[in-house]
Amino acid sequence: MLDLLRRELVYVSYYFMVQLRQIAGYWILGMVVGSLVSVFAKDAIHNAFDRIRDKRWGLWGLIPASILGVASPLCMYGTIPIAASFSRHGMRHDWLAAFMMSSVLLNPQLILYSTALGTTALVIRIVSCTVCGIVAGLVVYLFYKDKPFFNFEGFEPGASHDTHPNLFLRFLFNLGRNIKATGLYFLLGVLLSALFQRYVPADKFAALFGEANEGFGVLMAATIGVPLYACGGGTIPLIREWLMMGMSMGSASAFMLTGPATKITNLGALKIVLGMKRFLLYLAFVMAFSLATGLIVNMLV
To answer: What gap in Å lies between CA 190 and CA 160, rounded to an integer?
Structure first.
C-alpha cells in the first residue's frame, strides 16, 4: 500500500512539474503586466471612461464602455466604488452596466494568463467578454431606461494602495500583492490539472464535454463554472488541460464566462448594489449568455 502511494505521488509530482514548466511563464508575464497596468495606466483608463460621460453616443457608447471595462485592472470590489463615483457624476446606468459586466469577466492580467490557452481561445475570450458587457448594457437600457438599475448608496472610492513616491517600489509592492493574492490559487490549479491528467480518462472526459455532446457539455461547463471558479490565474491550468483532453471550445467559453461572473466575492459585491430581484436577473442573464455563447462557438469553431 505504501509503495502504491509513493508511486502515485511520483506520477502526480511529475505531471505537476510538467504543467508548471509549461504555464508558469504565462502566469509571471500576467503578474508583471497586470501590475504595470494597475500602477501606471489605471487612472488613465478610468479617466477615459469618465470623459465619455457627456458624449451623445446613445447605445453606441456601450462599446467603448465595455472595452474600457476589459482594460480596467480592478476587481469587482474595487470597480463598484469607482462606478458609484461615475454614477454620482451623471454616467448613464446602461454604460455603467457594460463597464462593470466586462470588468467582472476580464482584465489585462487575465488576458495575459489566457495566452496559455492558445490564440483561438484567447480571441474568443476577449470578444465574448466584450460582447457580454455590451449586451448587459443593452438589457439595462431596454428594461430600466427610465429608472436607475444600481444602488450605490454608501459606496465611496477607497484609498489607493499604490501611493509610494518611488514608482519602481510602487510597482514592486503591487506585484507582491498580486503574487500573494493569486499564487496559491495558481499552484492549486496546476495541481488539479495534474490530478486530472493522471486519474481522469481522456476519452470519458471528451465524451462529456466534447463536440459529440455539444449542448449538454456546454450546459455542464457553464454550471461547474459556478462552484469551481475561485481565481482567474488558478483556472487557466485546468482549462488548458481540459481542452487538451477533448473539451469543446464552446464548453470552455461557457466556463470562462460563468466562472468569473459568479465568483463568490463578485456575487457578494453585486448583491449589495443590485438588490435581490435584479441580482437574480443578473444570474439568469449570465447563464443564458454563457449557454448561447458556448453553442455559437461550437457551431463556428
So the answer is: 32
Cell readout for 86 is 461615475
Q: How many domains does the chain have?
A: 1
**Hey, CA dihedral for 14, 18, 24, 25, is it positive or negative?**
positive
Q: What are phi and psi of 14, to 5 degrees?
A: -65, -50
Residue 2 is assigned to a structural domain of this protein: no
Asked if residues 111 and 34 have their Cβ atoms less than 8 Å apart, the reply is no
Name the pTM for this structure.
0.87
The per-residue DSSP string of 66-90 comes to: HHHHHH----HHHHHHHHHHHHHTT
- Taking only Cα atoms into account, the Rg of the chain, rounded to an integer number of angstroms, comes to 20
In a domain, 30, yes or no: yes
Q: Are 170 and 160 in contact (CB under 8 A)?
A: no
Per-residue pLDDT tens digits for 230-247: 666 678 888 888 888 888
The reply to whether 4 falls in a domain is no
188 occurs within a structural domain: yes
What type of residue sits at position 204?
K
Q: How far is CA 133 from CA 104, 126, 141, 184, 218, in A?
A: 9, 11, 12, 29, 20
